Amino acid sequence: MAFFCQHCGYDSAKWLGKCPGCGEWNSFVEEEIRESEGAGASGGRASFSFQEAPQPIDAIEADERDRVRTGIGEMDRVLGGGLVAGSAILVGGDPGIGKSTLLLQLLQHLAAQGMKVLYISGEESARQIKLRGKRVGADSPNLLVLVEIDLESMIRHIEAIKPQAVVVDSIQTVCSPALSSAPGSVGQVRECSERLIILAKKTGVPVFLVGHVTKDGAIAGPKVLEHMVDTVLYFEGDGGHAFRIIRGIKNRFGPTNEIGVFEMRGDGLKEVTNPSAFFLAERPKQAAGSVVVPSMEGTRPILIEIQSLVIPTNFGMPRRTAIGVDGNRVSLLVAVLDKICGLHLSSHDIFINVAGGVKVSEPAIDLGIVSSLASSFLDRPVDPATAVCGEVGLAGEVRGISRADVRIREAARMGFSRCILPRLSQSEPPPEKVKNMTILPVRTLRELLDHLF
Fold first, then answer.
1. What is the pTM of this model?
2. CATH class for the domain made up of 278-452
3. What is 69-273's CATH topology?
4. Domain boundaries in the chain?
5. 7, 89, 193, 379: which has the fewest Cβ within 10 Å?
6. pLDDT in tens, 273-305
């Protein structure tokens, strides 16, 4: 017997009040550790072998055309171009955000191409899945539904049906008879995931594993689960906005941090092929504190709007609230503005929001945050045809960014005529000239304020 943290999978010989791994309190549960020769953890690993001799890498045949298109362009983008045979894909997100809906739509698209696909649910009845299927248009006879939580039964059905794609919704409901612990425990999640991943590798069937998330947004269960799978996708968004973003946190077959944008409608999730227009649709004109920043999400440029509100504080301790951006980064940039540019923000409440609920973490948005803060503090709007991007240092210098050409072209495509960028060093190639776009290079925040106001 051993004690396992139900949040991160940390194991201990005795019960602990606080987990040393993730810091959670009262998360340790006693579980039985069993070694079996059949369907257990060690048995599953022992029975799996590729049985191939080492070979030179230049003799291995691999073709990107072997990918299977899902029929959903945004999903193909996040997966790196389509489904890879034998891949294991972990999909996480908050309850009700649309994980099951999107995967059911994905299976319907594959079934419409003549593929036999299998949707396994341990949370809903077949009637509930059918009702959702009617809403999203999933009615292909090639889409099979199985309600099951027993791992051995799942594997038998998969081997008998031989589907070309499988969804397990969710991995926390699956249990193996080799372990006596309850479904959703660390041991069960690790054992069941490993058996399903091994099955995917042996048969070449792509397997989607839906994972519950904790209150902190991390996928419940052992952290090793994210290392075991080939791809980890997270759903972002909330009930207050119509859009949903699926982000690739890990991908062995394509770029990481790629995103796909969807809009939640009554008939399911619909692709948003022009995210920049979607996020800027309700942007106010001539409003102080509103600035547009070309941000890179994976390989895709997206224009986002940063809004700031700077007002004198009524209390001794000014408030700092940031939604969609790192609050610590905002505090750092406020200090730089105060020290370098003489904008005395220390006695003001500061509220920053990325419109639409998008979360952005790249350093290139620093210049947009600074511009937005200065605009709100001075109560002077930024030219609505101006886009801003760049990283800001503690000395007030504006540092270079990656993919400047792509950002400029996206801004020009959306009708912007001016773009403020870092002044590049002599060793860096200048960005390509874009028709009807004026590029304003800056090296310091003082130069930035001169161009803005």
1. 0.81
2. alpha beta
3. Rossmann fold (3.40.50)
4. 1-33, 69-273, 278-452
5. 379
6. 898 998 898 898 889 999 999 999 888 899 999
